[in-house]
Design brief:
One of its GO terms (biological process) is bacterial-type flagellum-dependent cell motility. The protein is mainly α and 136 residues long. It has one domain. 54% of the residues lie in helices and 3% in strands. It is built from 3 helices and 2 strands.
């Protein structure tokens, strides 16, 4: 029972982590819309989610080493996406920038809505489990 619950929540945790990472990538694209020669980036959410669920997350950096008893433990390394790709623009700009603001805004909004939907789905799942575990 606990294994099934952990597996289900693990999938949603990975999905939320990837949605968060994608939100940062899209926000970076929007922030650099006027930067000459900036290349817009994104990743394939579905393939990254499959990789994250099957293989676990890839982390960059290392935690802080503690050599003395009084040292404070460091935080976890940050999650990274392996296949961050450049986006091909529909129409090239003269300054070399490939950010299409309409496309970026729509993808940013779509990702935000999907993030909220995932949160609501997890919330409903947990409420259902609580109800099932409570005695009447």
């Amino acid at each position: 029972m606990i294994d099934k619950l952990t597996g289900t929540l693990h999938f949603h945790q990975e999905a939320l982590n990837l949605r968060h990472e994608r939100q940062q990538v899209l926000a970076n694209n929007i922030a650099n819309a006027d930067t000459p020669n900036f290349k817009a980036r994104d990743f394939d959410f579905r393939s990254e989610l499959e990789r994250a669920v099957q293989q676990g997350r890839n982390t960059t950096g290392t935690g802080l080493a503690t050599t003395q008893k009084g040292h404070i433990q460091g935080g976890k390394p940050q999650f990274t996406v392996d296949n961050l790709q450049y986006r091909n623009p529909h129409q090239a700009r003269m300054d070399g920038n490939t950010v299409d603001m309409d496309m970026e805004r729509s993808r940013f909004l779509d990702n935000s809505v999907r993030y909220q939907a995932s949160l609501q789905f997890i919330d409903g799942r947990i409420k259902g489990l609580r109800t099932a575990m409570q005695s009447e």
